[in-house]
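TL;DR need structure tokens for one chain.
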Amino acid sequence: MQDWSTSLSHITAGSFSSEKHRLVTIEGLLERPELAIQRACLQKFAKITPQYPGLRAPLDPAACEELLRALSPMLCSAFESRPGKWSMIAWYSIVTCPPAELLPIQRLPHVDGTDPGQIAMMLYLHRTGHGGTAFFRHKSTGLEALTEESFPRYRDALQREVAQTGLPPAAYVTEGGPLFERTYAAPGAFNQAVFYRGNILHSGVIDNDAPLPLDPREGRLTINAFLRPPAA
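>> reply
TL;DR here they are.
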């Protein structure tokens, strides 16, 4: 079994924005974070989806299982689910796309889906000048999180705005630009993990003037995961 030993001694559970979105932060999650970086160096990274501005490699299922044994009780309590083991899919991820080459979809905040029951985890394993994760409100609709019911209203409003004003410039979103405003930003300290509902509008905090190395030891390396509560 791989050593994915964790420390849950520094957990902060709170909320942000007027919508009181739940945010759980664990400082120093991995007892041996450098070992995780070494493992990342052995992976075959590839472009998996057009939405992510970089490369990914799947985290081994055995590693997910080991992490879940430690994280599931905390997740049940923090996000008020039934007791039991959660499920997880996770990737090593490195942001590599230069700002000038970003696709239109990569220049805007995004959601991981419209299901508020799916929880996202970001574990920051970099010491670069880049930041953590920012959260946003869409100005014209006031929406901060998208559901199956609210998504059509958001989509239609965004399409109208882009048709009127054009696409945002080719750059990573930081403060939100003309269409969004930032409500909060997790700092993304080394070996810090944050957990939040994946249907909240968010984006990685990427310095548009800083380099984006491919090497996991030098680039903006994270482990990002989607977690689901125990089935009924």
